């Protein structure tokens, strides 16, 4: 699995929960390690391409940027 870090526009725990929800739909292909509202960073491990993870995160309606892959 590859470690990925995304920056996501988050203002509250509700935003973080939205990210958890869409990532949860990817099943065991993604393991969320940390979602930090203060730093606006999501750290996870994924067995699918970063582009697919980003597409899922974009379903939250928030701006998503891949920081590290």
UniProtKB/TrEMBL annotation:
Task: Provide the protein name.
Answer: Copper transport protein ATOX1
Q: Which InterPro entries match?
A: Copper_transport_ATOX1-like, HMA_dom, HMA_dom_sf
Q: HMA domain spans which residues?
A: 1-65
| GO cellular component, as recorded | cytosol
Regarding protein family, the annotation reads:
Belongs to the ATX1 family.
Q: What does this protein do?
A: Binds and deliver cytosolic copper to the copper ATPase proteins. May be important in cellular antioxidant defense.
Domain of life assignment:
Eukaryota
Q: Which SUPFAM superfamilies match?
A: HMA, heavy metal-associated domain
Q: Which PANTHER family match?
A: COPPER TRANSPORT PROTEIN ATOX1
Give a single Pfam family match.
HMA
- Could you state a single Gene Ontology molecular function term? copper chaperone activity
Its assembly, as annotated, is:
Homodimer. Interacts with ATP7B. Interacts with ATP7A. Interacts (via dimer form) with SLC31A1 (via C-terminal domain); this interaction improves ATOX1 stability and controls intracellular Cu(I) levels.
Per UniProt, which keywords does this protein have? Chaperone, Copper, Copper transport, Ion transport, Metal-binding, Transport
- Name its GO BP terms in alphabetical order: copper ion transport
Under Gene3D superfamilies, the record lists:
3.30.70.100
């Amino acid at each position: 699995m590859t470690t990925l870090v995304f920056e996501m526009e988050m203002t509250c725990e509700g935003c973080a929960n939205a990210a958890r929800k869409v990532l949860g739909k990817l099943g065991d292909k993604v393991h969320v390690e940390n979602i930090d509202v203060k730093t606006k960073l999501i750290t996870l491990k994924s067995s699918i391409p970063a582009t697919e993870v980003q597409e899922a995160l974009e379903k939250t309606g928030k701006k998503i940027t891949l920081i590290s892959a």
